[in-house]
Design brief:
The protein is mainly α. It has one domain (1-99). The chain has helices at 2-33, 38-64, 69-97. Helix 2 packs antiparallel against helix 3 (69-97). The protein starts with a helix and ends with a helix. 28% of the residues are buried. The mean pLDDT is 93. Keywords: Membrane, Transmembrane, Transmembrane helix.
Length: 101
């Protein structure tokens, strides 16, 4: 049962991390196509390390779910931490560049 919980949390963490990476890629692509997009592109470059690290940690947590109960608990801790970091970073980036519509 703990393994199933660990796997679900790890998958959610990977999805959150990939969402952040995808948003940064989208933002970088849009900044490259616009005149005056250099500040946005520079901001995106500064965020790649965080996004990549959180994604790597999420994938590592998912990998740990193939072990015993102790590894499952460790996977849950790592996945929750990296998922929360990714979500907070994504929300921060979205708030910074949200258009008024």
């Amino acid at each position: 049962m703990i393994n199933l919980i660990a796997v679900i949390i790890a998958i959610a963490s990977v999805l959150a991390s990939l969402g952040h990476v995808g948003y940064l890629a989208l933002l970088n692509n849009a900044a490259g196509k616009r005149a005056g997009g250099a500040p946005v592109a520079q901001y995106v470059r500064s965020r790649w390390a965080l996004a990549g690290g959180a994604t790597a940690a999420s994938l590592f947590a998912w990998l740990l779910t193939s072990g015993n109960v102790v590894l499952d608990i460790l996977a849950i801790v790592i996945a929750v931490g990296s998922g929360a970091t990714s979500m907070k970073a994504l929300q921060s980036t979205q708030a910074k560049y949200r258009s008024g519509g």
